[in-house]
Amino acid sequence: MSEFKVREDWMAFCLPDVSEAEVASIAEAVRSGWWAKGPRTIAFEKQFAEYVGAKYCIGLNSCTAALHLSLAAKDIGPGDEVITTPLTFAASANTILHVGATPVFADIDPDTGLIDPAEIEKKITKKTKAIVPVHYSGLAADLGEIGRLCDSYGLFLSEDAAHAVETRYNGELIGHHPRGAVSYSFYATKNLACGEGGALITDDEELAQKARVLSCHGMSAGAWNRYGKGGSWRYDIEEPGYKYNMFDLQAALASVQLERMDDMQRRRFECVDVYEKAFKDVPQLRLQKTPAYCHHSRHLYILRIVPEALTISRDQFIEELKARNVGVSVHFIALHTMSAYTRRFGYKPEDFKKAYDFSESEISLPLYSTLGVEKAEYVAEAVLDICRKFAR
Ligand SMILES: Cc1ncc(COP(=O)(O)O)c(C=O)c1O
């Protein structure tokens, strides 16, 4: 067997896809003299709502803001419980705490990493007001079953679609005429990126109106309405809101990225093909399954090691990849093991055993549109080299 040859330069875990179109769009926005929320944000909101097929889109500065607003606009607060997954980024549960409600975790399906509807049902009490499923890594959560629970128990559905711009459930894009609210992230590493950014999607007019007002201090009129010709300087503060709005320099990038998304997705899929072919039937590795109802957006490539089949731990596996100049990440360190949550709720790792085991064996490999097949092949070879060297 030939010796694995380590490449000379470091391979980033993720890089944004910057074409001349992004550069031209941002330059035009900067030169326009209107940098705050204005015509580009409004145009992007329309473009994104049309793309997913929903009535309302509120452009925001993050998915965190969208998640928070979705709950705040439904008056969810102290005394209420909201169910979410422990296999997620902090924002999904932190925002439940931000409105004063209690996050309640429901364990996952270890084949996918998605929240398990059967586990959700076990956690529903009289205090439960909402469910925040996460479309983890770009897979769709089981919206059919979760929707059924919302109907049966009268719960609000706030989908965390930070990874799911291109994800489909039964052929329809996530966010396509949603039953509640859907929150997206346009953070620098996401499939549609503008550095920092997000959006809240809904078909509910009242929710949209409330979230929009709350997204900009609770003001009755934004700057674009006030400073434009014919605008009025007068405004009211309807609620003590937040400073969460998207602004035009973000929108200038986001609108171009949205136009380029199919092409970017195609190139990520080429890399996924390389990984899937290389790793299938490797006893040291376990691949993520895609439910039949789902089109995976492939935001993240989720690989799990089989600890019993290796002489090294997952952390050592990551060090071996780093030694081969491959940047990787972990999605996610199970949230219930973080000190903010153990301190407040006294959780132990085994309280959500499936999420914990998943989290402790997971490695996210580089996956982005500018990676290219050649580098993906290198990453795959590096993984296989480690599996061979450390097979039990
Ligand atoms: C699952 C999930 N939800 C929410 C967020 C928060 O997104 P943002 O950084 O846009 O606030 C992230 C961020 O990566 C995430 O992974």
What would you say this structure looks like, in words?
- With about 400 residues, the chain is α/β, with parallel strands linked by helices.
- It has 13 helices and 13 strands.
- It has 2 domains: about 20-260, Aspartate Aminotransferase, domain 2, CATH 3.40.640.10; about 260-390, Aspartate Aminotransferase, domain 1.
- Strands 1-9-8-5-4-2-3 form a 7-stranded mixed sheet, sandwiched between helices. Strands 7-6-11 form a 3-stranded antiparallel sheet, with no helix packed on it.
- Strand 2 (about 80-85), helix 4 and strand 3 (about 100-105) form a beta-alpha-beta unit.
- Bound molecules: pyridoxal-5'-phosphate.
- Pyridoxal-5'-phosphate (PLP) binds near residues 64, 88, 160, 185 and 187.
- Pyridoxal-5'-phosphate binds next to helix 3 and helix 4.
How many domains make up the coordinates? 2
Radius of gyration: 22 Å
What's the rounded overall pLDDT mean?
96
Q: What would you say the CATH architecture of the largest domain is?
A: 3-Layer(aba) Sandwich
What is the CATH homologous superfamily assignment of the largest domain? Type I PLP-dependent aspartate aminotransferase-like (Major domain)
What level of helicity do the residues show?
25-40%
Structural class category:
alpha/beta
Number of DSSP helices?
A: 13
Shape: globular
**Cofactors, ions and other ligands in the entry:** pyridoxal-5'-phosphate
Low-confidence stretches: none
Strand order of the largest sheet: 1-9-8-5-4-2-3
Strand composition percent: 5-15%
CA-to-CA gap between the ends? 18 Å
CATH level-1 class of the largest domain: Alpha Beta
Quaternary state of this entry equals single chain
What's the story with the biggest beta sheet?
A: 7 strands, mixed
The run of helices and strands is HHEHEHEHEHEEEEEHHHEEEHHHEH
* CATH topology category name of the largest domain: Aspartate Aminotransferase, domain 2
